[in-house]
């Protein structure tokens, strides 16, 4: 890992104040201004994809200013002075976004009353073992059978002739993702972790199928709510309310967005240490023929998305308040750095254990060029402003493991030789679940090393054996 990361920067900055450990030495804390200026300036290069996004942000000698428009014609919408940022991070742990936005707007350009953090205290202890680990698993999509998967357009169907057989091979992503999550949940819970899944098999995060929702009495109200949430324009609102819209349009523009919101709400309410969004990849340039079939491809790549890469139009304008707040949160908190570390562990495990390489840096994929920023830690990790990577708090990795339409993966994924939770699927999901478990183990090991360093730093800080032992006791209870 590069030592520009928060943890390593923190360790180096603190460690530079003493040459060897002893109870008589004291730690010189990092000046809060230096620490957060470095963090904000580093994060900003991965959070803004376009110059138009950068135009809404000012970081100067006094603090961080977020404007509602790139022209900066009005007063800044959010102002955080450098010494206020530790307090802002505390608010993120205890308040809702709406509450914090209200606090910041009432504060304006003034300082928080009574806040005078001149130095950064040594960081909080990260979770470093499976016992006590809280992890949210979000299996992608919601189909419970092949018919629903065809409706979602998230399935693979390949003619048997490619494998010298009469029977076609077919499977769907929602099944693979969900059973991967179930297997991973089993392994994590065996090790003492607490695991939450965002939805049941074949259901949305709201607990229904699309058809159940469409036939309910809530449809029109939800369509109007979607318009108020700026999911679509007035013309499309009228079209949806007319009853002439296709099912897929209603699914894509209303029901799917409702599902995303509910998934994020469930995750944030759970307050996990890690969030893993589980998807399976497919080649970008492989069109269907006869409206349903895919041809096997030779390439096979993985990728992982993490927060960042805001487009200019996504944060510019009064209606983009929520996105600007998430930009502020990601600039100041540790979530971006933690996500990058976790995602890099996943990419490494996919390569080492599954033998599936990361998407190469030199590629012609539209998502990479137009919407993403490559991580500075690992090839195959991209900052991207997806809904879940933006609004979920804490470290998050949105995975796209292997190509489902790869010539070698197709016969493996098409098997139904494994049953979990009463769901028949391919045993290949066990391999992918093991990869994610290994990545989580690596993330915990990284935290363990950091905890050891913190132990040494705190030992110097306390300077008294009895006080230090009491501190360790309290630390263990908090974990």
UniProtKB/TrEMBL annotation:
Pfam families: Amidase_3
One GO MF term attached to the UniProt entry: N-acetylmuramoyl-L-alanine amidase activity
Gene3D superfamilies per the UniProt record, alphabetical: Zn-dependent exopeptidases (3.40.630.40)
Organism superkingdom: Bacteria
Residue ranges occupied by any MurNAc-LAA domain in the UniProt entry: 135-418
GO annotation (BP), single: peptidoglycan catabolic process
Protein name (database record): N-acetylmuramoyl-L-alanine amidase
Species of provenance: Fulvivirga sediminis
């Amino acid at each position: 890992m590069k030592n520009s990361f928060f943890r390593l920067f923190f360790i180096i900055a603190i460690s530079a104040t003493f040459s060897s450990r002893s109870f008589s030495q004291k730690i010189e804390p990092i000046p809060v201004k230096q620490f957060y200026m470095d963090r904000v300036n580093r994060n900003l290069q991965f959070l803004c994809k376009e110059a138009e996004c950068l135009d809404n942000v000012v970081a100067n000698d006094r603090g961080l200013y977020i404007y509602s428009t790139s022209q900066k014609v009005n007063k800044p919408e959010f102002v955080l002075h450098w010494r206020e940022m530790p307090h802002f991070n505390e608010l993120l742990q205890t308040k809702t976004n709406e509450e914090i936005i209200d606090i910041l707007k009432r504060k304006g350009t003034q300082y928080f009353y009574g806040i005078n953090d001149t130095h950064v205290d040594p960081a909080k202890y990260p979770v470093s073992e499976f016992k006590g680990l809280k992890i949210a698993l979000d299996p992608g999509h919601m189909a419970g059978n092949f018919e629903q998967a065809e409706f979602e357009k998230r399935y693979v169907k390949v003619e048997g002739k490619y494998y010298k057989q009469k029977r076609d091979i077919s499977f769907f992503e929602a099944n693979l993702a969900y059973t991967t999550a179930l297997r991973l949940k089993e392994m994590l819970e065996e090790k003492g972790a607490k695991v939450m899944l965002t939805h049941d098999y074949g259901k949305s995060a709201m607990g229904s199928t699309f058809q159940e929702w469409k036939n309910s009495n809530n449809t029109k109200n939800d369509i109007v709510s979607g318009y108020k949430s700026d999911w679509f324009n007035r013309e499309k609102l009228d079209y949806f309310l007319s009853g002439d819209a296709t099912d897929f349009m209603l699914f894509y523009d209303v029901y799917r967005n409702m599902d995303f919101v509910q998934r994020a709400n469930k995750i944030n309410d759970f307050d996990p240490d890690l969030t893993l969004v589980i998807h399976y990849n497919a080649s970008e340039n492989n069109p269907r023929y006869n409206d349903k079939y895919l041809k096997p491809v030779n390439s096979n790549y993985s990728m992982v998305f993490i927060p960042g890469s805001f487009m200019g139009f996504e944060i510019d304008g009064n209606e983009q308040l929520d996105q600007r707040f998430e930009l502020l949160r990601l600039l100041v908190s540790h979530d971006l750095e933690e996500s990058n570390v976790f995602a890099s562990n996943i990419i490494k495990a996919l390569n080492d254990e599954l033998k599936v390489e990361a998407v190469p840096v030199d590629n012609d994929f539209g998502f990479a060029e137009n919407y993403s920023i490559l991580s500075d830690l690992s090839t195959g990790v991209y900052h991207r402003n997806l809904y879940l990577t933006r609004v979920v708090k804490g470290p998050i990795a949105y995975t796209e493991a292997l190509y489902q339409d790869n010539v070698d993966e197709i016969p493996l994924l098409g098997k139904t030789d494994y049953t979990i939770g009463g769901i028949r699927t391919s045993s290949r999901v066990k391999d992918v679940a093991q990869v994610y478990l290994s990545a989580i183990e690596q993330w915990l090991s990284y935290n363990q090393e950091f905890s050891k360093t913190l132990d040494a730093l705190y030992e110097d800080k306390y300077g008294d054996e009895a006080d230090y032992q009491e501190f360790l006791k309290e630390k263990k209870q908090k974990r």
